[in-house]
Amino acid sequence: MQLSFDEVPVGAGPQPASSPAHGEGSDAGAGHSPVSLPEFDPLKAARRTDRATSHEAARLVAGNVTESQKRVLAAHAAHPDGLIDHDAAAEIRTMPLGSVQKRRHALEGAGLIEPIDEKRLSPFGTPATVYRITTDGQRLHARLVEAAA
């Protein structure tokens, strides 16, 4: 079964009154639509010796990656030692924490970002999980940078 990131509609489900207006902090609106990556070859993204999960992740991301997902992936690529979601949001600056968390969760599900066995303090003093980019995530990020050049 092959999935793509855009199968779940943006804004699906109830939204709290304090949530951003439609299009703000989401993948909806100008500049936030999924970007097709026809030059991305999933067969080259994973080696024959890689685990089956790496091959599945390569197939999953071969479809569409949103601009917001690219920004979250880029933040993690810039910090290979890992980030908590608060640090990723601070790095990106144009996305609220909740949007960063949603995009990170999708990237984690695709095997591009993974939690590590480390906690760091959030700005509120509570322990937060550290996430880092995976080898598959690094490969995809490099392809995205190459395609944008």
Order of helices and strands: EHHEHHHEEH
* Helical segment count: 6
Structural class assignment: alpha+beta
Unreliable spans are: 1-33, 35-43
Number of strands: 4
Overall average pLDDT: 74
Sheet having the most strands: 2 strands, antiparallel
Beta-strand portion reads 5-15%
Radius of gyration: 15 Å
**Shape type:** globular
Oligomer category: single chain
Helix content: 40-55%
Distance between the termini: 32 Å
Order of adjacent strands in the largest pleated sheet: 1-2
Please name the defining characteristics of this protein.
149 residues; alpha+beta; two-stranded antiparallel sheet; 6 helices; globular; disordered N terminus
Structure write-up:
Helix 3 (67-78) crosses helix 6 (135-148) and helix 4 (85-92) packs across helix 5. This protein is 41% helix and 13% strand. It has a two-stranded antiparallel sheet. A two-stranded antiparallel ribbon has the order 3-4. The protein has helices spanning 42-45, 52-61, 67-78, 85-92, 97-109, 135-148; strands at 35-36, 64-65, 113-121, 127-133. It has 149 residues and is an alpha+beta fold. The longest helix is centred in the last third of the chain and has 14 residues, at 135-148.
